[in-house]
Amino acid sequence: MGQPKLGKTENGKDMHYSVGALIKKEGKYFLIDRAIVPLGFAGVAGHIDEGETPEEALKRELKEETNLDLVNYQLIFEEEIENPCSKGVDYHHWYVFECEVSGKIKRSERETNSASWYTQGQIRILRLEPAWEYWFKKLGII
Predict the structure, then answer these.
(1) Does this model's pTM top 0.90?
(2) Rg (CA), the chain
């Protein structure tokens, strides 16, 4: 059974459910430069659709934003954080997965300005999307 599209925080505030993909290969992390709000560099991520499991959303978002296929994944964080988005909701319940992917990158021109691999040093100077700045700090990447 999948997630509802919208939930409530313990304080009764509206909350979306979201997934994120941390993709690392050969010492570099795969990031997109988001073309839609919230702006900034981020891992592949998105809202979980009504009835979708986090894993189904993860596969769908990877395909939509990058054309990559999910090979292997492991949940590394499940946490509710304040994270305003374009749909007027200020809180998200996040499922962040460490992912192994395959395929040829073909980024979504509607959702991304660019998609590439970055070192930790490069990530430290990028303008990160707020939720991903939080995740990278929590992981000790920045």
Answers:
(1) yes
(2) 14
